[in-house]
Specification:
Blueprint lengths: L9 H21 L10 H13 L3 H11 L5 H30 L5 H9 L6 H16 L7 H23 L8 H26 L1 H4 L4 H24 L13 H15 L5 H10 L3 H17 L4 H5 L6 H41 L1
Helix pairs in contact: 1-2, 1-3, 1-11, 1-12, 1-13, 1-15, 2-10, 2-15, 3-8, 4-5, 4-6, 4-13, 4-15, 6-8, 7-8, 8-11, 10-11, 13-15
Length: 355
């Protein structure tokens, strides 16, 4: 069974490249290990970087929704199998890499626990399993099916909140708690993002040339609001996780604004060449970039480590965060080439299973 050809959209490809950069920046910030005093200028800067890039992950689901058209259930099952196998193999790979870097003893049950406990950044793949399985239902939306889309989004929203509330009031088996309390409700929520991306892309001609400036201003405004609110919570000693949760209203608004903004961008030819080189490797870059961060952190090549060479100023921190992100992005891109071949073989195998 041949897989449907996905048409290329230069502006959306550019958004994919930027989104991948922002995901890496998020993990660089959270693993940078820069010791700063709460409320200091460098602390505010680290907080700013986190607030400016943290919201980006749902955009990947919006992009998936924008370009997903098939209502073929077998194709959806094949893709879901691919994401599940990728999750298992990647979890095993990261268990061994963590053991090597930390010097821990390797055990069979350690591998099993590493997969079941939902502990790595690979949780994204399990969400893709669920969203992809439901994609034939969501892909029945056409240009004039707004009531149907809104009804589905309402179901997913109510489902997300209901399951989240239910899971918050039970104590499941420890090993399965991640799957029960995080995977199911978050998958419902990401289905909402999937539909949101589909609706925005269907209506893209209505959004072009009318809302670019508004989208940019609103995005900047929500980043500032995100930063100020988080700063108030952290500064008072209370860390409010809602500002880092993917169901935060701040994230919804930022994702919508950024998506609309890129619908209005005309990508230069030179940037299209960069897109062509990077976009096919995005999946591999996402899988491997945490290992790259772990390795360079192990050898002290971090904003904290490099910062020890230079004066620990505000501007040193400001420049080192994006610098390490660029380094990690470039190294992950180089390492993604063999992964890309494995990815293509695995996708072909999964298509054969359901054909």
């Amino acid at each position: 069974m041949a897989e449907n050809k996905v048409r290329r959209d230069a502006s959306m490809d550019a958004l994919r490249v930027l989104a991948c950069f922002m995901v890496i920046a998020t993990h660089v910030v959270t693993q940078s290990k820069i010791r700063v005093s709460v409320g200091s200028s460098r602390w505010n800067l680290m907080l700013f970087w986190n607030c400016a890039v943290h919201f980006i992950l749902p955009v990947f689901f919006m992009l998936a929704g924008a370009f997903s058209k098939s209502t073929d259930k077998r194709q959806a099952i094949g893709k879901s199998i691919f994401y599940f196998i990728a999750f298992v193999l990647s979890s095993v790979f990261y268990y061994f890499s963590d053991a090597v870097l930390s010097g821990e003893k390797i055990s069979f049950w350690g591998v099993v626990y590493g997969i079941i406990s939902y502990k790595y950044h690979l949780w994204f793949l399990l969400n893709m399993v669920v969203v992809t399985l439901l994609s034939p239902l969501m892909n029945r939306i056409e240009e004039n099916d707004l009531p149907y889309a809104c009804a589905l989004m309402a179901i997913f929203t109510v489902g997300f909140k209901s399951i989240s509330y239910f899971c918050a009031n039970i104590e499941p088996v420890a090993l399965l708690s991640g799957l029960i309390s995080e995977l199911v409700p978050s998958s419902f929520m990401f289905c909402g993002y999937f539909l949101l991306g589909k609706l925005l892309y269907i209506k893209k001609e209505d959004l072009k040339s009318k809302r670019t400036a508004a989208a940019l201003v609103l995005t900047i405004t929500t980043v500032v609001a995100f930063f100020v609110n988080k700063r108030i919570c952290d500064g008072s000693g209370l860390i409010d996780e809602r500002f880092f949760s993917n169901d935060s209203i701040f994230l919804y608004i930022q994702c919508i604004c950024l998506f609309i903004l890129f619908l209005n961008i005309n990508v230069p030819v030179k940037l299209e060449k960069i897109n062509a080189a990077v976009v096919p490797k995005i999946f591999g870059i996402y899988i491997i970039h945490i290992l790259v961060i772990d390795i360079i952190t192990h050898f002290g090549i971090t904003p904290a480590g490099i910062g020890g060479i230079f004066p620990t100023s505000f501007w040193t921190t400001f420049l080192l965060i994006p610098l390490e992100t660029v380094i990690v992005y470039a190294l992950s891109w180089l390492l993604s080439f063999p992964l890309y071949k494995v990815e293509k073989l695995l996708r072909r195998f999964c298509r054969m299973l359901v054909s």
